[in-house]
């Protein structure tokens, strides 16, 4: 994943509504979910949803397909994996990273 796309993806996810949309799409899995159902789940008007989906699509984090009269949106899991890989590429100086234990507080 190139740095420009990483910046676009992080910028797209740096908004509460877009993050909520993306998380809903991740939960929906590969089958995706209709735009109207996304709007209901995240509590957005259709026009606001459309605006945010455009940003997520521009960042290549979301794909869409026509299914009859519905537009079905899905998370782009390959792009998400690429983003995580880019962010962790040089993790721990190239050695295996240990996940810190959760505090027992």
TrEMBL record:
Entry annotated with the keyword Transcription regulation: yes
PROSITE patterns according to UniProt: HTH_ARSR_2
Pfam families attached to this UniProt entry: HTH_20
CDD domains for the chain: HTH_ARSR
Keywords carried by this UniProt record: DNA-binding, Transcription, Transcription regulation
GO molecular function: DNA binding; DNA-binding transcription factor activity
Domain HTH arsR-type: 1-95
Keyword Transferase among record annotations: no
PANTHER family: ARSENICAL RESISTANCE OPERON REPRESSOR ARSR-RELATED
Protein name from the UniProt record: ArsR family transcriptional regulator
């Amino acid at each position: 994943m190139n740095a420009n796309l990483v910046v676009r993806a992080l910028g797209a996810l740096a908004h509460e509504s877009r993050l909520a949309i993306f998380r809903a799409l991740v939960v929906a899995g590969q089958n995706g979910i209709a735009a109207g159902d996304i709007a209901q789940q995240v509590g957005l008007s259709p026009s606001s949803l459309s605006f945010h989906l455009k940003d997520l699509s521009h960042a290549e984090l979301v794909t869409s397909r026509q299914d009859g009269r519905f537009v079905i949106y899905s998370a782009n899991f390959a792009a998400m994996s690429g983003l995580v890989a880019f962010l962790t590429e040089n993790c721990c100086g190239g050695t295996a990273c240990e996940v810190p234990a959760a505090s027992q507080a």
